[in-house]
Amino acid sequence: MNNSISSLLETGIQLFGVKGEDTLSRDETVVRERHQEQARLLKKHLTRLNQQAWKENILQLASFGGVIAAATTGLLSPTGPGGCDHNPLERCANCATSVPYVLCGVHAMKNRKTRAGRLWGASLVGVGAASCAFHASSGSIRPACRKLDFWSIAASSNIMLRSVFPGLPTAVTALGMLATPFKPFLVSTINSTAMELKYLYRAHKNPKLKGAQMLHATTCLVGLSCFALEEFFPRAPLIHSAWHIFSATAVGTVNHLIADVEENEMAITPLTV
What we know:
Mean pLDDT: 81
Radius of gyration: 33 Å
Strand content: under 5%
Oligomer: single chain
Structural class: mainly alpha
């Protein structure tokens, strides 16, 4: 009798033990699967955040394109009559791609709300005209037209700075104008770098400006690449025309910055950019 009871108790304990282990095993499996699912979700989330961080870093770096281009262009100071018009096709293309500067200038003259902004637009018309005159020139007059091309760009940058910084002292502009015939590239570099820093600052303050600033920075970088390529490979076909197109696009997007300055720093509401 006692042996029978002992056998039954042992059998019950064994059965209970097996059942408990099975139940625990099933619970562990459920918990393990839940943890694995959470780990997969966490990994997916971290991957997405990592990709987003990379995109933000790339965009942030690209936003400095204008500053990089402005500072670097000062190191590339071409001299002499220029060798970008190798044949009639390139000469015509370079003259034709000077027209966008004129169009940018006309747009600014019509839509800017300050005297400095409209004067900057007029100076862009002069930049386009000087560029066209240079590329159409030949012979002994070409070096003079080359200087006129550089001078018009530097002079326009002086006026642009007054549009971007409304409180700029007149003496600063006068000093820039006086230095233009002697150091046109230096003048353009200083003014352009100051404008690019202002563009970055305003884009940080005004999210609506970020798209225009990013387009501006990107076209500046691509334009710089064309400019540098021409410096080292002057026979590259139509490279100067490509630089005209990208730089004119970059110049055109400065209208967005000036419109923002007019609206937020001068309390003038622009109708358009």
